């Protein structure tokens, strides 16, 4: 008889009762695929759920075995031998995967490679030369479609009736286990009948399981940042420009959050080993890292959360990136990711998703709705935080043009909108240098002892920067003297010569002083964000640490100081700091070092780390 002409029909006690409730077409990842579930019936509520789900995502479920089948989806406990035996095949000529396959595809919104070890069922012949532990690396979704072999094994196509009693003993065992699961499911639903009546409810179960995941995410992300308590000494954000109540609403300044952080500090007995920057890494090691692609995608996600003002997730992602950077080998699976410190289940899932699908679904979703895209645009306006951006959105503004023409804007916001595209562009390193040189010339002309140091990402060796951070200092001067000369002489002079374009914020808090604005090269077109930071000589060491960053490095240094009974801020390192319960600072302590950057490292008991190794 010609092979495969006739299908093998499968009977069982359950009749197929699933009808597809198709998800929107673009999400129908299984469209065109024909799944043969094994056992091929819906007697089990769990299997019914799986079949239902597959149908909803566009699959057809074959009632009989035949040529049209593209995938055999096998329940737990069933072996390759069971399948071949009961289908009367020598080998299974199509993709054969375990029951987790469809849900994993749905999870990743892609057709995953069926050859992955994790989907393999027991007894499946392993292709020669295959290294079991090596996952299929970065296979694009389109490249991993299971292709039905053009040539099939010869086989008898006698119509075979399978029944449960005919199944191998292991199948029976599997069904007992499944029955137990079904009972649990029935318990959840009160009766199985209810589940049948409303398959939507079945989805609610799946969704409620996901909700747990979301809770897990919060727990895991909390763990991920456990050794990075946020620091109340950080004054960087307390500038006049961030005035639309962003500061007071930021999660960072929330008293409860601080309390939690303090508890975390207590729990970190071996914290110093976990010090994020104990391991050296810079942009070079990053580029060579086996996890570069994963890091790049996670970085985009981090940027998204950063733009959204979600400091909690931002830190969690930074932690994950930092952990990945330290790995000499590629981290491909969830299990591998979970074994890294600071990576919880949700982030581990994301890492696996990136590796297997070469993309992160969440990233696409993050920018998917028109509102979200508008919000992202508005968040890019200089000085606009999440509150302001959301407010504009709620007020009906939909574009930068809308803001420019219709919204009442502060003068800073107007600059931010009008120079949106300028400020969004990275500044090449050599251009940062030229801006620095122009300021240096003006500064030294005003006072030969004044010095200009380019800080921020430039000092860390970045090839381009988001802004220009210039530290203005003088060994013997007080902050007041520096501020006076800068604000009364240098800044007006730089405006006059056409270099400075606008002043955005001149802030002063305590002794700290800074001037924020925009500058432009004489032959340039773009306005660049420039920060002038006034630092007295007695504080330059601490200021260099602070204004070199990055922020995670700064937080780590501060936490390290705190663990040693000291306090570090942008002005200096202080000893004998009295702290009350939950490490709340009671006294400011005694200044032990402010001038010498290296000495601060020494006093903290950590080896000197050049700026380019402070990329955490
Ligand atoms: P930024 O100029 O904001 O950052 P950057 O120079 O590192 O990066 P970019 O290329 O995007 O400009 O701030 C300068 C330094 O100030 C930063 O490296 C570390 C410190 N800082 C903090 O410690 N915490 C903060 O929240 C911010 C914004 C900065
Ligand atoms: Mg900068």
From TrEMBL:
Residues 25-119 form the BRCT domain. Transmembrane segments: none annotated. It is found in: Nucleus. Its EC number is 2.7.7.7. Its main location: nucleus. Keywords: DNA damage, DNA repair, DNA replication, DNA synthesis, DNA-binding, DNA-directed DNA polymerase, Lyase, Metal-binding, Nucleotidyltransferase, Nucleus, Transferase. Its cofactor is Mn(2+). GO terms for molecular function: DNA binding; DNA-directed DNA polymerase activity; lyase activity; metal ion binding. The keyword Plastid does not apply. This is DNA polymerase. The lineage of its organism: Eukaryota, Fungi, Dikarya, Ascomycota, Pezizomycotina.
């Amino acid at each position: 008889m010609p092979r495969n002409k006739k299908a093998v029909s499968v009977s069982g006690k359950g009749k197929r009762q699933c009808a597809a409730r198709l998800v929107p077409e673009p999400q129908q990842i299984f469209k065109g695929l024909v799944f043969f579930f094994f056992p091929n019936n819906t007697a089990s509520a769990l299997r019914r759920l799986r079949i239902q789900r597959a149908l909803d995502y566009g699959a057809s479920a074959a009632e009989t075995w035949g040529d049209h089948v593209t995938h055999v989806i096998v329940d737990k406990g069933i072996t390759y031998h069971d399948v071949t035996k009961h289908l009367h095949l020598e080998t299974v000529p199509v993709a054969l995967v375990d029951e987790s396959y469809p849900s994993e595809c749905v999870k990743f919104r892609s057709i995953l490679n069926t050859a992955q070890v994790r989907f393999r069922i027991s007894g499946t012949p392993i292709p020669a030369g295959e290294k079991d532990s090596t996952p299929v690396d970065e296979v694009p979704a389109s490249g991993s479609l299971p292709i039905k072999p053009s040539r099939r094994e010869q086989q008898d196509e006698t119509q075979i009736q399978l029944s449960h009693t005919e199944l191998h003993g292991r199948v029976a065992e599997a069904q007992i286990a499944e029955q137990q699961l079904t009972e649990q499911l029935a318990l959840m639903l009160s009766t199985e009948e209810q589940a049948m009546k409303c398959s939507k409810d079945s989805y609610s179960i799946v969704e409620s399981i996901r909700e747990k995941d979301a809770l897990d995410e919060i727990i895991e992300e909390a763990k991920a940042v456990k050794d990075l308590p946020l620091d109340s000494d950080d004054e960087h954000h307390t500038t006049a420009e961030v005035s639309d109540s962003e500061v007071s609403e930021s999660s960072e300044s929330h008293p409860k959050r601080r309390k939690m952080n303090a508890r975390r500090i207590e729990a970190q007995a071996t914290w110093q080993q976990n010090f994020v920057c104990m391991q050296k890494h810079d942009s070079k090691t990053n580029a060579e890292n086996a996890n570069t692609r994963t890091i790049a995608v996670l970085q985009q996600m981090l940027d998204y959360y950063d733009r959204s003002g979600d400091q909690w997730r931002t830190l969690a992602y930074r932690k994950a990136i930092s952990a990945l950077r330290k790995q000499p080998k590629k981290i491909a699976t969830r299990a591998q990711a979970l074994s890294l410190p600071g990576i919880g289940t949700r982030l581990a899932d994301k890492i696996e998703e990136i590796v297997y699908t070469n993309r992160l679904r969440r990233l696409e979703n993050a920018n998917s709705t028109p509102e979200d895209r508008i919000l992202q645009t508005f968040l890019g306006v200089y000085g606009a935080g999440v509150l302001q951006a959301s407010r504009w959105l709620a007020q009906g503004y939909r574009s930068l043009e809308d803001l420019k023409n219709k919204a009442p804007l502060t003068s800073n916001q107007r600059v931010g909108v009008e120079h949106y595209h300028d400020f969004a562009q990275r500044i090449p390193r050599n251009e940062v240098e030229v801006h620095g040189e122009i300021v240096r010339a003006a500064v030294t002309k005003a006072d030969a002892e004044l010095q200009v140091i380019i800080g921020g990402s430039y000092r860390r060796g970045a090839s381009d920067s988001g802004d220009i951070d210039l530290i203005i200092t003088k060994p013997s001067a007080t902050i007041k003297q520096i501020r006076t000369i800068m604000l009364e002489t240098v800044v007006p002079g730089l405006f006059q010569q056409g270099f400075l374009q606008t002043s955005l914020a001149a802030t002063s808090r305590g002794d700290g002083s800074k001037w924020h604005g925009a500058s432009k090269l004489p032959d340039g077109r773009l306005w660049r964000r420039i920060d002038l930071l006034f630092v007295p000589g007695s504080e330059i060491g601490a200021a260099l640490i602070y204004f070199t960053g990055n922020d995670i490095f700064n937080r780590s240094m501060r936490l390290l100081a705190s663990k040693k009974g000291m306090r570090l801020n942008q002005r200096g390192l202080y000893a004998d700091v009295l702290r009350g319960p939950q490490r709340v600072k009671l006294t400011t302590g005694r200044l032990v070092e402010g001038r010498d950057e290296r000495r601060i490292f020494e006093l903290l008991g950590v080896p000197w780390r050049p700026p380019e190794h402070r990329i955490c």
